[in-house]
Queue: 2 jobs
Job 1
Amino acid sequence: MKATIERAKLLRCLSHVQSVVERRNTIPILSNVLIEASVDGLVKIMATDLDLQVIESLDAASVETAGAITVSAHLLFDIARKLPDGSQVSLETADNRMTVKAGRSRFSLPTLPRDDFPVIVEGDLPTSFEIPAKTLAELIDRTRFAISTEETRYYLNGIFLHVSEEDKPVLKAAATDGHRLARFTIPRPDGAEGMPDVIVPRKAVAELRKLLEEALDGNVEVDLSASKIRFTLGGEGGMVLTSKLIDGTFPDYSRVIPTGNDKLLKLDPKSFYEGVDRVATIATERTRAVKMALDADKVTLSVTSPDNGTAAEEVSADYRSEPFEIGFNANYLKDILGQIDGDTVELHLADAGAPTLIRQDEKSPALYVLMPMRV
């Protein structure tokens, strides 16, 4: 194989695929990326960790000899990063080595044969639909902070996607770690009817969100079966991310969404966030709870720490029910408030022990549920 690629293109492509590659691998070839050059001047670069695979295509400046080889992902990325701007990078393979040349720099790297490189077999992906990249990015942003990181509850380690028939057909994304729940609803895309319920793993979600950043103007094609999902993003040559899905059953989260919470608190999310952030300064790992004392048209936030003393702040609010106190994990509350773009946020409360519903308003596609803490 012999190909010449502009440094900027190579670097951008490697930055996308190399983050899939785990730093520590027991299987040497999984540390590598597969580079395939074809006579029509197209170069494909692919990386995998056996559960997730990313392929990106780019136009080479020239391809003298077609071929395919695998080489260390992080090493090639680091080299490309340090090469001078605007340089042309020549990649040439011979005798189990790859020579990388640019300007006066020259590197000779060990390679492994392409036949050993594992490829995820997608099989049949019967459900297929398109979704605007901006919508998909928002869907991820509004839910992924609530994904559980507990490996024992592996079925919560991702975003749950499912369709449902309500007043009109919708596609819902949900994530929960048992303490909080985030749900985002969009109109069901054409082609998504009858789609199986799927859980997209946390790593696939993170990698997809990175790729979306550079393709926000276009659409994303989503193809899936009960065990695999593939996202195809446009742009130059395009990027394809394929992931295995989590093999598990997501709990029926609709049961924890409260419907009868009768106490309504409305505040400005920014000043509420900043107030929580300030009083939480003295909280320690043991006392992450912030106490909210609700009164007519104000909320008093307070934190008491046996080591660091106490803090309190008043935030003006719209509240007309009877006064009461409730406590929340400060970080969880801030995570949710950070998702609210508007000028008001609604908290629908019942009592100090019941889950609280948080949303911008009843028309908002995003909805959050937060469990209280004892304070």
Note: The chain has six helices and 26 strands.
Job 2
Amino acid sequence: MGETTLEVINLHVWRGQNHILQGINLHACRGEVVCVIADDYQSRRNALHGLMGIGAKREGSVRVHNIESVHLDVLAMGNLGINYCSKSTGVVRNLSCEENLLLPLTNMGMGGGLPLGEIYSLLPMLKLNKDVPAIRLPPGEQHMLSVARALRGGPTYY
């Protein structure tokens, strides 16, 4: 098992008087990607907002790179390398899928990201659509492209 990047222990979240998350536990190591899957949009949104501290009271522990962050706001969480992206993918819609992946990644992290070939082996749909303008990709593939851009940039924050 690698270096722990994200550890959530017994997270409880309230929005107003509503106890929306109860006792969530999560562990992710460096290099792992975490996906939130739920039956409906509201459940996914509540989980992500609770994790990020967006408009909610939190109790429990949320540790990012061994830094306790349950008391931090969303901007401070971003400084630790945990970001929330809702409907916006951050891709340039007029550029092709591959052109988006080749854009300079100066703001993405400290370098050391995945090479293009490895991105294509992890996400073969992007290779199949490498010449397709991002605007013509289905929404799910636009989000996949957004994740691939982050992986290309080597998102490591300390």
Note: Residues 139-153 form the longest helix (15 residues).
